[in-house]
Amino acid sequence: MWFRKRENDIEMSGMMDGAPKKKKPQGPPEETEYQKFDWKRFFLAPKYIPWHILFIVIGILTVIITIKHDAVVEKLRPWSEKVRDLPAGWLIPIAILIVISFPPLFGHEIIALLCGVVYGLWIGFAIVAAGTFIGEVGTWYAFKYSFRSKALKLERTNLNYGAMARLTRDGGFFIVLVIRLSAIPAHFSTAVFSTCDVKFWHFVVATFLSLPKQIFLVYLGVLLLQESNDDVIKTVMFGAIFIITIAMGVWIYMKMRTVKSTLLEEQELRRVKKAEAVELVPNVERAFDTRYDEGPVAWSTMQPTQVSRPMERRYDEEPPEWAMAPTQPTRMV
Questions:
Q1: Does the model's pTM come out above 0.70?
Q2: What string of DSSP letters covers 147-213?
Q3: Sequence-ordered list of residues with C-beta below 8 angstroms from that of 250, at least 6 positions apart, any chain
Q4: How many domains is the chain built from?
Q5: pLDDT digit string (tens) for 106-153?
Q6: Is residue 241 part of a domain?
């Protein structure tokens, strides 16, 4: 017969209810192990060599695309016009932008320029903004639920990551917005935001307010259609974007230097308190220095806190009267 839990049944509530769910730890880690970054080990370790090669190739391609972006856009223009003529073809650049939002993929600038060339300023900006926003939200959830443990380990061991996490956690919405507008790569900042307990609505609003940065890239694509050789407008736009992003990046860097000093001071203070606690509390393990498999110990070396050696007695000897327990019953004759 099965017992059913009745409403307001206090006796069976503890039996039927499952174990309480454990909440995920939030906030800064209590223990840290910040160490000086070993550049030699990082660059010469065999397991990092494929990543170095990949980043070098990506860097070279990025430089080439940045310098020769006009030629790249001109080569891709016929294909982009074919995509525009397809039914719902505007969904294709949005899908591409969503995919390349996940690191280490790249090419966002080229897609934005092509949208300006093919769709014009405002429609192109709407396409780029939609793809960028959805891609960043997807990156947020991917890092939050897939790389949470790795991020916590980095925050305990990597000083730069720990400083960025503390700055975003304590700085609130304003710091998140400045980081989104700065020269810090969006992929990196999104990964940090999603794994260091930044409020989701802070991230969403900051990402939405930073979308106007994309209109500059789209407008550059519009300017590529003009036959004028006057590059003054493009130069001014590039200069303005460069100055704003670099200025905000320098401001964030100065803030991070202050946070790094605070993190190192907190780590040293925790170590001092831990050392003082060890000196005040007696070490119980010293009473068990000898393992069971290390042989007998001379009784002359026993510590004063150890008990005396028990009296040896043969198996056929009667125990002394004082050793008998007073609770034993009287023997019946």
A1: no
A2: SHHHHHHHHHH-HHHHHHHHHHHHH-HHHHHHHHHSSS-HHHHHHHHHHTT--HHHHHHHHHHTTTH
A3: none
A4: 1
A5: 667 778 888 888 888 888 889 888 988 998 888 888 888 877 777 777
A6: yes
